[in-house]
Amino acid sequence: HGMNYLGLPYSGKYTFVKTEMTWPINHMVAPKEKSVQCTECHTRENSRISNLKDFYMPARDYNATVETLGVSVILLSLIGVIVHAGMRIFSAKRNGKEH
């Protein structure tokens, strides 16, 4: 459909492209004996990486919109879990299936 929309020929074949993704889950610090405390980087003043720009780092950078959205998502999730649990408990009691 997409090729037809663009007015280009389509072979009728498709395949997947090999991709690779790297997630640095250890903060790029190894071995653990040489690691530093979180606050050496995640702080607003005199951070080890305070000169690095163009990305948002929690506890170092501040953006009111990001902070508000983050807190809102956490609170809404918690409210959703509480409401869901309450509905399940109420439903179980109503149907005589107390656990």
Question: Strand content of the residues, in percent?
Answer: under 5%
Distance between the termini: 53 Å
SSE-based structural type: mainly alpha
Q: How many β-strand stretches?
A: 0
Main sheet overview: none
What overall geometry do the principal axes of the alpha carbons give? flat
Helix content: 25-40%
State the helix count. Answer: 2
Radius of gyration: 25 Å
Order of helices and strands: HH
Assembly type = single chain
**Average of pLDDT:** 87
Q: Enumerate the spans where pLDDT stays under 50 for 5 or more consecutive residues.
A: none
Structure summary:
The chain is mainly α and 99 residues long. Helix content is 36%, strand content 0%.
Question: How is this structure best described in words?
Answer:
- There is one protein chain.
- This protein has 99 residues and is mostly helical.
- The chain has 2 helices and no strands.
- The protein has helices at 2-6, 64-94.
- The longest helix is centred in the last third of the chain and has 31 residues, at 64-94.
- The model has no long low-confidence stretch (mean pLDDT 87).
What's the structural blueprint in terms of helices and strands?
Elements: H1 2-6, H2 64-94
Features:
2 helices, mainly alpha, flat, 99 residues, single chain
